[in-house]
Please model this.
Amino acid sequence: MPESRCLQGIWSSPWIFIFAASGSAVGLGNIWKFPYLIGENGGGAFLVIYCACLLLVGLPILMAEVALGRTVRSNPIDTINDLSERRVISSFWVVVPWIAGLAGFLILTFYSVIAGWSIAYFERAVSGKLVGITQVQATGMFNHLLASPGEMLLWHSIFMALVVLTVGQSVTRGLAALVRILLPVLIVVMVLLAGYSLKTGDAADAIHFLFRWSWQDVSFDVVLAAVGHALFSLSIGMGAMFAYGAYMSKRMSIARACSAVVTVDLVVSLLACLVIFPLAFAFHINLDSGPSLAFVSLPIIFGNLPAGQLVGGFFFLLLVIAALTSSISMLELFVAWLHEKFYIARFKAALLLGGAAWFIGIAVLLSFNHWDVKVLFDLNLFELLDKLTSLIMLPVGAILLSVLVAWFIPKTMLQNEMITRQTSHFRLWYNTLKYISIPALVVITLAGWIGV
Ligand code: TRP
Model:
């Protein structure tokens, strides 16, 4: 399809794709989750395996998703429908984008609640409520937040309103304008924070922990955690990158753009570790304290630093910004589809979907207090949605989308899309996808399911 016929427009500059896709990739996963995963999985060993997963599984699948999106210049649902109507692929594939889109939607329902916690801590930090806080007080503060559905609802609602307002704009305008400013700010502030942390904290121990290698730390569980997080962190498996690829200018090399996204994602994750670890070592805070690391330990750190009010405020603001640019990509697939298929205004579509996600989010936030009931498999609603999406829907979505690209989409179609002058580069990507990325992901996912 010629570029001018694309309903939603194209990123005004080829660079915007990199910003938007990085904005999707960089999120709570990088700043909140990655440091505690490294902490739990033994530091350097996890880092090395994670980098291998990014390179061998993440990057090739990311390129596959983006290439497919750009080939058809449409949303994933219509794209697959169209290909199946033209009998390029069988009608079985029609369900794939629905699984993918549903995964994004479901992730948003709880992602918004956690992003809401970040707004809550931003408020606590700037208003000085963290000053001089002790470990007991910080734990109490976090538990108090979890036990206050009214407060969580307020922050969750504010966050979802921001998401709807942004996705409601044309994505090539609203989102582009936002990420162009936000992403560089995010990186600059994180570099400053890392510098601050390395200077005031225990830099030597932190660096040693982050880059040490020990064979004892390598286990199958570590590999599983690393590959799962690589998918989550790069926003692969739910068609978000597919949708962004549809707005990508033909002038941009997919390989180069995707490599840039992977690099930015890794750099932000590393920066997050450099912010957290030196201070955590200096304050003797357990690195393997899991998901509470950000919301219990960091307030203690910030509360006891001279400029903690400012530093803490910045840090939680970063979390909110990163979560916002990620959440936008979770709604984009369905918003684009409703807009292109039924000509529903983007804002209305965003309101409809964001409203539905907000509503389910209320049940999610209640599952931390009044409604902490085991819904299924001994999990409450929050745990269920988290596990269902990250352990089942995302890997399945990623496997199916990349199998579709590697085995069913005609090779010539992809070759045209990759427009790389060196056919050896194309072959390298294609063969890596077919013979390394997909088999590795299948084996690791199945092994995870049967609990090896
Ligand atoms: N990548 C984001 C993060 O690291 C989360 C995210 C955004 C995501 N879009 C996604 C995860 C799509 C999986 C699929 O926080």
